[in-house]
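Batch manifest line 476
LIGAND: GBH
JOB: complex structure
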Amino acid sequence: TQDATAAETLQFPPGFLWGSATASYQIEGAVAEGGRTPSIWDTYSHTPGRVQGGDTGDVADDHYHRFRDDVALMAELGLTSYRFSISWSRITPQVGPDGIGPVNAEGIAFYSDLVDALLEAGIQPSVTLYHWDLPQALEDAGGWTSRRTAERFGEYAAVVAAALGDRVPMFITLNEPWCSAFLGYASGVHAPGRTEDAAALTAVHHLNLAHGLAAAAIRAAAPTARVAITLNLAWVLPESDSPRDADAARRVDGLQNRLFLDPVLHGRYPQDVLDDTAGVTDWSFVLPGDLEVIAAPLDAFGLNYYSPTIVRYWTRERPKEQADGHGDGAASPWIACEDVEFPVQHGTKTDMGWSIDPRGLTELLLRVAAERPGLELMVTENGAAFPDEVGADGRVVDTDRIDYLRTHLAAVHRAIGEGAPVTAYFVWSFLDNFEWAWGYAKRFGIVHVDYATLARTPKGSALFYADVIRGNAVPA
Ligand code: GBH
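JOB STATUS: finished
ARTIFACT:
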């Protein structure tokens, strides 16, 4: 049980990377500086009614101007890696459907300086090329429903790899393409806010293709750099062992996990998902040769994990429960799942309303390890939102987050013990930041940000994490 493992010190393998993660739109601000052009998240956050409180990333944590202080704070905490993402429209601000346009030296310089600052501090940069901030001009030409967006992404990846690949050991092509496709184009709760099922499935394929094209481009431009992708796999549990609940679980697993894992690891799309969605699209946008591109060799695999997914068959006898937040007749990200229900969970939840079960982290790591033996695994995000405040004594007491991190680190340790080759763990997130549709209302940071002054205060969880890093172990 969790308690049994927590009673002893959990030692991690030598050289294990201890990191924290962020994403460009969530922390940078400076949206009109350095030659940057708008992304879909600028447009979306500035559209009334889209983001809670009307919050935008215009200033965010002002990391663009404060990155040197932020790196110093990372060094103080002892982080050995930092995972950040690059804003595409800082690098090639004139990108359009027919070409990426000129490279913006100011954009390259910002990330180059960040990389140098990290290396000087002894912190390994892990770079995500796409964490949801598509240049608006590409969305105007179809966004991820257009094959040309995938082609432009490959060209952008080549530019970044050529500029930074001598100093960046790890490139992650995409962060959570499930969110880009289904939250962006089916449920519309993320930018660009479209609600068209066929568009979402088209986006799935073009995101997968973008990954493959970028992987090849990185290899060509930066032969020593390593290539990974990050997926938000779901730990899907049917509520009962009834065949109908099992079928609900199969379909959710198909849409969130196998629609990405199968092409990337095995060069195929899952036939059951193609069949289930045949009424929405005939998948004719998958062209000959695409699956070979998508299944390009990988050096590592990134898993983001937050919460379990419990599903059951909806009997239609009472209103549907949508514990995933897509109730009230809102558009759903779950295509061809009209009879799938996400039952409301009991027990402790984070401030997002997400239930807590670290077993999913162990299970998902073991699943990928079994599907691709020997593939190096990284937990590229894991963490929790709680409504933290700075106390009168200047401290932030977030024991709930410490408990979350402790039990999830124990879950990673267990996966390693059972043979999963996990080499890195990144807490989401380094700083409180712009939490997408929730704006600044949700705090995921191990470092508190006062949005009035932008002052940073390490929380208790940051001090706990520093302790973990010092000992390369989770203390008893
Ligand atoms: C990650 O997304 C992101 O990479 C990161 O930028 C973000 O800040 C962080 O997690 C915290 O949210 O969406 O209603 O269907 C995680 C996004 C959260 C998407 C859980 C799927 C399931 C409920 N995932 N979500 S719903």
